[in-house]
Amino acid sequence: MAHSLVKDTIQTIGQEYADTRITIYVGIVGFTILVWDHLITSGDEIEFIWKGRKGILVYLFLLNRYLTPLGFIINLVGDCQHFVRYEGAMTAIGIEVVGLMMLIRVIAMYRHQRAAVVVAVFLLLAWIVVTAWLLSHGARMFSPSSPCTMVFNSGTIASASAWLPLLYDTYVFGLTFYRAFSTIRNKEAGHVIRTLFADGLLYYSVICTVNLVLTIMIIRAQEGVKNITAQYAHLRVTMMSRITLNLRKEA
Questions:
Q1: Nearest 5°: CA angle at 175, between 117 and 167?
Q2: Which positions ≥6 away from 105 have C-beta within 8 Å?
Q3: Which helix (H) or strand (E) holds 93?
Q4: Per-residue b/e over 87-113, b at no fewer than 16 CB within 10 Å?
Q5: What are the C-alpha distances in Å from 108 to residues 113, 173, 176, 226?
Q6: 0.85 exceeded by the pTM?
Q7: Kindly report the CA angle at 99 between 163 and 185, in degrees rounded to 5?
Q8: What is residue 116's three-state secondary structure?
Q9: Coil, strand or helix: which one is 187?
């Protein structure tokens, strides 16, 4: 019996160590993509954002572009027990700022169709409320040797943190596709509409895949890696930055 207990303990420690390594590697990959994109687009940022005309989208762009990296860096040097909720909140704010930027573009495209805008607002608010509720009920994984990641004590409701953004993105992409495709089909589309359509398609394809995987993992994966794909929230920040810069170029 003692031998079996020791064997189980060793297996548990080994699994937690493996989960920790995977979490670290995934986090480094996501953050590296973010930093690399910042570096190669810094020239466009200076020209079209810092030197360009200011507005609500510009300020949201800067918040989106720099809040997430700051939260990640602070979490690296802080104690996990105290900063895991902070990291979760910073990540949630970062991706919901992206959601707000998307909503502003929906309002611009459908200013005379209130029903389409109201549905988008409802989905975004539902996403924000569910995320806030889950963060308030989340905690660091219990074992001290486990990766610095937050787990939600809310059963399958936790998957809503992945499928609600997926639903919102799908709805916004559908609206964008409908508006852009009808204009392109009638040969009335300019460079801005074509850029919005192409970038929106790329954004949706990548983020949809990430959120779909995250939803499945939250429901089906083992405890140590349930939220591991959430670290690719950096991709949402990166791609929205690219879309904003590309649109500013074409404008």
A1: 80
A2: 172, 176, 196
A3: helix 80-109
A4: bbbbbbbbbbbbbebbbebbeebbeee
A5: 10, 14, 11, 37
A6: no
A7: 95
A8: helix
A9: coil
CB-based contacts of 154, cutoff 8 Å, min separation 6: 134, 137
Tell me the DSSP string of 44-84.
HHIIIIISS---HHHHHHHHHHHHHHHHHHHHHHS-HHHHH
Residue 64 burial class via C-beta count within 10 angstroms: exposed 0-12, middle 13-18, buried 19 and up: buried
- For 183, the token pair is 């204009």
Per-residue pLDDT of 79-133, as tens digits, reads 555 566 666 677 778 788 888 988 998 998 888 899 999 999 999 999 898 888 8
- What sections of 110-229 are H helices per DSSP? 114-137, 160-185, 191-220
Which amino acid belongs to residue 146? Answer: S
What letters, b where the CB count within 10 A reaches 16 and e where it falls short, cover 117-129? Answer: beebeebbeebbe
Lookup: tokens for 19? 């989960």
CA distances from 189 to 61, 182, 183, 193 (A): 25, 9, 5, 6
Burial group, residue 85, by CB count within 10 angstroms (0-12, 13-18, 19+): middle
Distance CA 210, CA 33 (A): 15
* Range with the largest mean pLDDT of 29-33, 81-85, 126-130, 135-139: 126-130
- Angstrom distance (rounded) from CA 129 to CA 198: 31
**Bridge partners, residue 152, by sequence:** 138
Q: What is the residue type of 17?
A: Y
Q: Give me the phi and psi of 227, to 5 degrees please.
A: -100, 15
